Amino acid sequence: MYLTIITLPIIAATITGIAGRYIGVKGSQILTTTCLLISAILSIIVFYEVGIIGSPCYITGFKWIDSGLLHLNYGLLFDSLTVSMLIVVTSIATLVNIYSIEYMSNDPHIQRFFTYISIFSFAMLVLVTSNNYLQMFIGWEGVGVSSYLLINFWFTRIQANKAAIKAMIVNKVGDFGLALGIMAIFFVFKSIDYSVVYASCYYLFNINLIFFNVEVDALTLISLLLFIGAIGKSAQIGLHTWLPDAMEGPTPVSALIHAATMVTAGVFMIIRSSFLLEFTQNALIIITIIGAITAFFAATTGVLQNDLKRVIAYSTCSQLGYMIFACGLSSYSVSLFHLMNHAFFKALLFLSAGSVIHAIADEQDMRKMGGLVQILPFTYVLILIGSLSLMGIPFLTGFYSKDVILELAFANFHVYSSFSYWLGTLSAFFTSFYSFRLIYLTFFNKTNAFKYVFNTIHDAPFLMMIPLFLLGLGSIFIGYLFKDMIIGIGTNFWGNALFTLPQNILILQSEFLPYYIKSIPVLFSILGASLSYLIYHYSYKYLYIFNISSIGISLYTFFNKKYYFDIVYNSYIVRTLLSFGYNISFKLFDRGFIELFGPFGLATLIQSSTSKLSKFQSGYIYHYIFIFFIAISLFLIFFFFNFFFFIDFRLFFIWILFILFYFF
Fold first, then answer.
1. Is 542 helix (H, G, I), strand (E, B) or coil?
2. What does the DSSP assignment read for 53-110?
3. I need a labelling partner for 402 at 20 to 30 A (CA). Which of 70, 124, 291, 417 fits?
4. DSSP letter (8 states) at residue 620
5. Which residues have C-beta within 8 Å of that of residue 426, sequence separation ≥ 6?
């Protein structure tokens, strides 16, 4: 059963990819959806066995690597953390697959699309079920390759090409840090198996390591290198630029990348490495600060985006910031709980946005929408549920994890945690603002759409309604149903899957905060939503006057252009590297030195020299005597002018033998 969960998606991908033209469109859709559905059902059973009953499963397979000190078997680890991720990955992937049957029905390459989704799901399952860092890294890279294929699915579009290449290159920066971290783990622990590494952390505390000729704490260095990998994959500030551009892929791809798989891989890896992080307080502080800054940056950037999917993408980036800084506060269970909750309401938001885009002829600019609330009532209700859950409105799924993260930050009583708390609270304000801005511009504003759009507009078809309805239920009830089991005080759900030092446990302090402190994030969320409605409904004329002023233009440009991150990167990094690659690496080295001493130099010299020397092969004895005389003369010159001081004298014997055998 455990192996079946992982193997079914890759079996479906193999059959669909190789024999897709023979089994047809319907066959590909049925095969991939059925395999993912079976994996999801088995994941629920495994969740019951491992998570609720408390019976972890360890599967050791064939010997994979046996070299020196590195002994590694292919193995699978099913503990509470793994089975929680299995529920998220398989259920969201199955619902996206069902949704895609109708959404992609007019695409000519349906078999290829469903093949990519199955490969994507398989790579994520490999990542979360691995029992060592190297195997996890293979799943990590598999997710990256699959995301490249899916973002670039419509490969005839230049923007899709650019977005896919950007996602791959930016992630490679983070992957390089992760690879160094895994190497450092092996250097320090002499193993990369989870059980060996985590059991040894206590005994290798305060061990120093030389890194770039600087002596640093080994566990801190490892933690920061692993975190660099998470920064790339989970789109934290600095390596976040790929995430909004990933919207160039089909909308189901956006839901899959943002909700269940790729972006959550970094958070999962940080949570999995909790045994390492707990012994590195400096690394935890850095993780907390970067996560909080990311949440605030992405929330403010999303306020003035006009693309429907891009707004939701920045909300993903912001929520990932919450998850990361929860990890920095050593609240790994709360971080994972928010990851699970976020998967449902973010998948709901993306698929609902896809329903809107599907209904109005693939238009994504919110300024060209409006007046859709009466035409798309089902989609409107679901986007409203997803947005309210994202805002953290009480008694919806997002409230039970997002507010707990902020309460934990307030209860830590450190400068960095207070800084993170207020940034997170302000992020909640801006999140509510752009969520209601999205709803108002899409559904309530005076319409700016063309007439022909309304002639063909329609609400979500039945196959798209089913996943949306189920995700809507999850966005309402999942947080309430699982709160006590996952993050409740005294719960034994996690067993040995997570580790937190006693002095870092804050859940008890957060429970007894005053009610007015706990109410601040909710009040900020309500204030942001109310302000958004008042501005766009009653003060739109004044907003326009402010926007055309010099200050308004500067502010709008700054936030709409994403703090100029892309411009700075393109101007100072990308352009410099391209210039180096063309003028130095290509023209000077490839076309210069290498060709000069290679095909156009040494090869040409040898060819011309041999053609000239071949003329001495004339058949006349006096030519051969002349060559022999020249060789003997050169040999005597070397010998009598003491060149043997510079050459090993034992080589003279070899010279003599060479001359004798060559000429006689």
1. helix
2. S---EEEEEEEEEEETTEEEEEEEEESHHHHHHHHHHHHHHHHHHHHHHHHTTT-TTH
3. 124
4. -
5. 296, 299, 524
Q: Find the DSSP H helices in 440-506.
A: 451-456, 462-487
pTM of the model: 0.87
Q: Which residues of 110-149 are buried (b: 16+ CB within 10 A; e: fewer)?
A: bbbbbbbbbbbbbbbbbbbbbbbbbbbbebbbbbbebbbb
Angle at the Cα of 229 from the Cα atoms of 225 and 230, rounded to 5 degrees: 110
The DSSP code sequence of 351-410 is HHHHHHHHHTTT--BGGG----TTTSHHHHHHHHHHHHHHHT-TTSTTHHHHHHHHHHHH
Residue 351 near residue 471, CB atoms below 8 Å: yes
Q: Tell me the residue type at 531.
A: L
In our burial notation (b when 16+ CB lie closer than 10 A, e otherwise), range 296-330 reads bbbbbbbbbbebbbbbbbbbbbbbbbbbbbbbbbb
- Residues comprising the chain, all counted: 664
Q: Average pLDDT of each block of 10 consecutive residues along the chain (664 residues)?
A: 91 91 90 93 93 88 81 88 92 92 86 92 92 91 90 88 90 91 91 89 82 85 92 88 86 79 87 90 92 92 88 90 91 91 90 87 82 87 92 89 89 86 92 91 84 78 89 91 86 87 84 86 92 86 82 87 88 87 79 68 70 71 76 70 54 61 51
CA separation for the pair 443, 384 (Å, rounded)? 10
Backbone φ and ψ of 26, nearest 5° = -60, -40
What Rg value do the Cα atoms of the chain yield, rounded? 31
Q: Which CA distances in Å does 622 have to 135, 612, 619, 625, 628?
A: 72, 18, 9, 5, 10
**155 in Cβ contact with 213 (< 8 Å):** no
Check residue 658 and give its pLDDT: 60
Q: Are 205 and 279 in contact (CB under 8 A)?
A: yes
Angle at 654 between CA 652 and CA 659, to 5 degrees: 95
Q: Which of 112, 101, 132, 142 minimizes the C-alpha distance to 20?
A: 112
Element (H, E) at 647: none
Neighbours of 29 (CB within 10 A): 23
| Confidence (pLDDT) at 598 | 65
Per DSSP, the residues of 403-454 read HHHHHHHHHT-SHHHHHHHHHHHHHHHHHHHHHHHHHIIIIISPP-S-HHHH
pLDDT score, position 648: 56
The Cα–Cα gap between 591 and 152 comes to 32
418, 437, 386: which is closest to 559 by C-alpha?
Answer: 437
Rounded to whole angstroms, the Cα distance separating 312 from 350 reads 7
pLDDT score recorded for residue 207: 84
Q: What does the domain layout of the chain look like in residue ranges?
A: 2-560, 561-617, 620-664
Contact between residue 312 and residue 346 where contact means Cβ atoms under 8 Å apart: yes
